[in-house]
Amino acid sequence: MDNIIFQKPDLTIVTPTREGFSAHWLDNLAKVRGNVEFILVHPPGMKKVQVDDYRIQQINAPFRGEIIQRMTGLYNARAEYTLTINCDEYLIPEIAEIVKIYFQRFPDSWILRLARKSYVYGEKDKLSMPWSFVPSSVDNLPIWDGRKENKEPSWEENYLQEMPIAPLQNSFDINILWRNRKDHHGRHTENFDKKVWKTKLVKDTLIKLSQNMTIFSVFKYIPFWCLDRLLGLAIQANFFTQNGDIIGHILPLSEQIRIEDNPPEYRGKPRYYILSELILLKSFPQYPYIWNLVIFNTRKYGFLFIKESIKGFSLLG
Asked: pLDDT tens digits, residue range 101-114?
């Protein structure tokens, strides 16, 4: 047993937790098979839960919030590949086998996107249903090349869809001052969460982001929320080569991850993405795509953020 504990895992799964997460979720997490490392990152002061699975580590982050909790877990990841999920998201037990088969087939890939299915809060019986995805199929799935086809496949079609890098060199679009963005459409990803990434790319990018959170001297600006898109785009910007490069693939249905809606007490809270994406712009100002994103979100969320801030200050008074 001691040798197993110190063995390098094949996959690290990081989860930022909140108080009161369900034992049902933790029991199902432990059903994941193989040489997997789980890192549960709790808010400050939250008591660690009693678990018998030696693969499950528990850390208390220095501050509460998605960004610092996820970053704490990711910095401690030991495996070559890393996946982050929330404490209401369920994984196929063979996820480690899927990851191993995929990256053996595509060793130069950065990312593997999992197919997902959503469930309303409280449908525990459906969340625990048997999984039908066959891990070994990953080795034989044909590849759908979107550059050669006239249409996109549906999620149900048994193809690996190629995932291009985010088109960071797209031209700056002045029209986003009065209309929605259009440059984000496509099979690329902006978000980091619920995907398997090469850990080294993640850690190298986190170092750069952390450096750009410094305001001056030892003072840092760390938003509470929204690491998802910040980190997903930052990795691609940090290692960018050129538009159109394929950096990974998208798995087809049936699902490999099941997502339960948040409980009522955790719904409906606004998150102002611009607060984290300013760090993205500070880190990678050379890419027009990021300027389009930040300017659009400033227009979309800026007024709401100012309104909520004024409301908060008035309550303090």
From this structure: 999 999 999 999 99
Distances (CA, A) of 227 to 108, 287, 301: 25, 19, 17
CATH fold for the domain made of 2-316: Spore Coat Polysaccharide Biosynthesis Protein SpsA; Chain A (3.90.550)
Of the candidates 117, 36, 121, 139, the one whose C-alpha atom is nearest the C-alpha of residue 80 is 36
Residue type, 87: C
Helix 199-211 to helix 66-75 angle, to the nearest 10 degrees? 130
Quick one: pLDDT at residue 313? 44
Closest to 206 in 3D by CA, of 184, 222, 219: 222
Distance CA 255, CA 113 (A): 11
Q: Please state the domain extents for the chain.
A: 2-316
| Distance, CA of 216 to CA of 230 (rounded, Å) | 21
Q: How far apart are CA 211 and CA 218, in angstroms?
A: 11
